[in-house]
Amino acid sequence: MMTAKSEFLNSGVGYCYPDNNASCIKIMRSAGVSALLYILSGTLVVVAIFGNLFVIIAVSHFRQLHTPTNFFVLSLAVADFLSGVLIMPVEFAAVIDYCWYLDDAVCPYHIMYGYFLLFVSVLNLIMDRYLAVCDPFFYNRNVTNLRTGMCIAFMWLLASLYTYMFIFKSGGLLVTDMCVGGCFFFHYTNWWIINNLLTYLLPMLVIIFRLFFSISIVSILSVQTVLIFLVAINCCIDPIIYGLFYPWFRKSLKMMVTLKIFKSSSSMTNLFSV
Questions:
Q1: Kind and range of the H or E element at 15?
Q2: How many CB atoms neighbour CB 13 within 10 A?
Q3: Which of 189, 43, 200 is nearest to 115 (CA)?
Q4: CA-CA distance, 60 to 58, in Å (whole number)?
Q5: Nearest-CA neighbor of 229 among 9, 36, 29, 6?
Q6: pLDDT, tens only, 176-215
Q7: Which CATH number fits domain 13-267: 3.10.20.30, 3.40.50.11690, 3.40.190.10, 1.20.1070.10?
Q8: DSSP secondary structure letter of residue 134
């Protein structure tokens, strides 16, 4: 006769720490599905780290790439690189099993840096595309490297202040003692709506409205696992796009791989010549 615990485990749900009665609940997946998810997540992490690292080195090293647009690309690559190093490995492990395996003291920093880096990425995309697409003449005449650097510094500062206020000063609640193996962040519904409007919906509406003058929202994905993988793919997609469509990135990447980048005159290389 099956015990209540064995029936519970056979139902597709188990415990993060089976030997602990206070353990959080986890999703039980087949070995094949778990292996596939971990392989996929590991691939995304590697692409996010090394792809964005190549972009950072290319834009930083080659003087021909020191333009306002590329500085926004550099800022975005730094944010995505840090996400790949600090956030994605932990988040994937947590979302695949729905368990938190790190120390409870790490939980607040993980949540704070996750929101912070995601907001930085959004701000970089919005600012660069708004100026370049919506006000191209102003962009070409008035956006200098110095002003771009000041704008990027302001965006990182704004993202850090907003993230800190949203998580710690507006009624948010970080919970790690609800059960063993849990890292949860709760907030008032009104604040979730405001946060999503400010950080995601409104910025996108600005760009889409200025480009198309109308918008139609078809559906919103609410499944946490799918959402996490979509965010991770977003961190990986830029280096792939650069590699497919930008010859200067392929040329700079070839110089890195062949170690020609270490030559004293490599920073003056003409990346746009055939």
A1: strand 13-15
A2: 12
A3: 200
A4: 6
A5: 36
A6: 777 888 887 777 666 667 766 666 666 666 555 554 443 3
A7: 1.20.1070.10
A8: I
